[in-house]
Amino acid sequence: MILMEAYILDLDGVIFRGSEVIAGAPDAVNRLLDSARVVFLTNNSTQSRGAVAARLNASGIRCTEGDVITAGYAAAVYIRKRYGAQKIYPIGEAGLIHELKAEGHEIDPGRDEGRDDGGDGGRCGDEDAVADFVVVGLDRDFTYEKLRIGLCNILAGSGLIATNTDPVLPVEHGFLPGAGAIVRALETASGRSAFVIGKPNPPMMDAVIDHLGLPAHECTLVGDRLDTDILAGSRYGMKTVLVLTGVETPESVSQSRIKPDAVIGSIAEMQEI
Ligand SMILES: [Mg+2]
């Protein structure tokens, strides 16, 4: 095993599968931590960095909040650095809202008007331009009303930012619709394209490179998706390792043009890389 300076580890499909911890993952991560730096990089915005770190700790993995970069956190930081504190209508869960507030952004709860107006769904005009940005992540309480308010804001001039566009989320016994499905709903309704923060896009990758302060070629990225994790690592000149405990299968790997440096069954096999 050639030791790298740092390992960038995806979470869903690599360490977790839904609420379950993938067998052998904690020991494998702690072995890496004995000799290298480890950062956890997830497109999932549903949990705050602190909540992710607590979940990793509960699984026996040594880490702190500062070792975790979520797409929700990366979105909040990106907006603050580029535009300052902004008013944001979030379509997402508690983790996204927490990170937006932590970076000083104001959360717009959305307009109530239109809900009891007899069914026309409310107006979409300039008077609804209450948010600077609509920020969209995975929201398991997504509703038509949230779609309506998001659309009103976008049509009135709000920017559309997506934490990520993963089509599905791997869970214990299959897949849930991912943030990408919700982003597409807003894109379809508005005719606009979202600016995307998460892997494989530059805002998320720049955030992790800045965080580590290391050249990309000294980093190994471990992930379960070819079109996000492996593509991102390859573009940045990192070593890439695909695990088969998430989205991909041997068939999808053989059919893809995106080629990881190594394919392993599970992160538990990392010592053999
Ligand atoms: Mg994943």
Task: Characterize the structure shown.
It is a single chain. The protein has a six-stranded parallel sheet, sandwiched between helices. It has a five-stranded parallel sheet with strand order 7-6-8-9-12, with helices on both faces. It has a two-stranded antiparallel ribbon with strand order 2-3. It folds into two domains: 6-43 and 199-272, HAD superfamily/HAD-like (Rossmann fold); 87-196, HAD superfamily/HAD-like (Rossmann fold, 3-Layer(aba) Sandwich). 48% of the residues are buried. The protein has 273 residues and is α/β, with parallel strands linked by helices. Helix content is 34%, strand content 20%. It has nine helices and 15 strands. The radius of gyration is 19 Å and the shape is globular. α3 packs parallel to α4 and α5 (144-155) crosses α6 (179-190). Bound molecules: magnesium ion (MG). Magnesium ion is lined by residues 10, 12-14, 223-225, 246.
